Amino acid sequence: MDARSLLVIKFVDAPVSSLNIIGELFTCTVALHSLVESMIEQYLHPRTSHYKIGPGKNLQFSVESKWRVLAMMAVVFGSGFSAPFVLVWHQMLKK
């Protein structure tokens, strides 16, 4: 006998009472109720976020002033591009 047949035999031999059936129905009803409730909450009542929504609002810096963004980008990209040249220049002067 394999595990499936033992499970079927055990299930068939189990005494069936009205309390067991009512308990199972109640469990299924509670699970269905919570599923439907979460679906309604998710699809019909979307949660409002405390984050601002719109272009540029999810960045770590402000994009309100284009000149400030230009200066910040020049500093960030300029320092990253110039770092290898500065390191080589420093090593050459070290002699």
UniProtKB/TrEMBL annotation:
Its main location: mitochondrion. GO terms for cellular component: mitochondrial inner membrane; respiratory chain complex IV. SUPFAM superfamilies: Mitochondrial cytochrome c oxidase subunit VIIc (aka VIIIa). It is found in: Mitochondrion inner membrane. The keyword Transit peptide applies. The keyword Ion transport does not apply. GO terms for biological process: mitochondrial electron transport, cytochrome c to oxygen. The chain crosses the membrane at residues 69-89. Pathway: Energy metabolism; oxidative phosphorylation. Keywords: Membrane, Mitochondrion, Mitochondrion inner membrane, Transit peptide, Transmembrane, Transmembrane helix. Coiled coil: none annotated. It is a single-pass membrane protein. Gene3D superfamilies: Cytochrome c oxidase subunit VIIc (4.10.49.10). Component of the cytochrome c oxidase, the last enzyme in the mitochondrial electron transport chain which drives oxidative phosphorylation. The respiratory chain contains 3 multisubunit complexes succinate dehydrogenase (complex II, CII), ubiquinol-cytochrome c oxidoreductase (cytochrome b-c1 complex, complex III, CIII) and cytochrome c oxidase (complex IV, CIV), that cooperate to transfer electrons derived from NADH and succinate to molecular oxygen, creating an electrochemical gradient over the inner membrane that drives transmembrane transport and the ATP synthase. Belongs to the cytochrome c oxidase VIIc family. PANTHER family: CYTOCHROME C OXIDASE SUBUNIT 7C, MITOCHONDRIAL, CYTOCHROME C OXIDASE SUBUNIT VIIC. Component of the cytochrome c oxidase (complex IV, CIV), a multisubunit enzyme composed of 14 subunits. The complex is composed of a catalytic core of 3 subunits, encoded in the mitochondrial DNA, and 11 supernumerary subunits, which are encoded in the nuclear genome. This is Cytochrome c oxidase subunit 7C, mitochondrial.
